[in-house]
Amino acid sequence: MLLWGGQVVTTLGAQASSIIYPLLILALTASPAQASLATALRIVPYLLLSLPVGALIDRWDRRRVMIVCHVARGVVIVTLPLAMAFDALTVAHIYLVAVVEGALHVFFNIAETAALPRVVERAELPQATAQNQAGFAAAGVVGPALGTWLYQVAGKGVPFVVDAFTHLLGALALWRMRTSFTPAPAVKRPDLRAEVIEGLRWLWNHRLIRDMALITCGLNFLSTATPLLLIVLAKEQGASEAQIGLVFSIGGLGAILGAIVGGQIQRRFSFGQVIIGTIALQALLFPFYALAPGPVWLGVVYAGIMFFGPVFNVVQFSYRISMIPDGLQGRVNSGFRLICFSMNPVGAALCGLTLEWWGTTATVAVFSAFYLALTVATWMDDVVRRAPRHAQAPVVEVK
Question: Does domain 2-178+192-385 have CATH number 3.90.580.10?
Answer without folding.
Answer: no
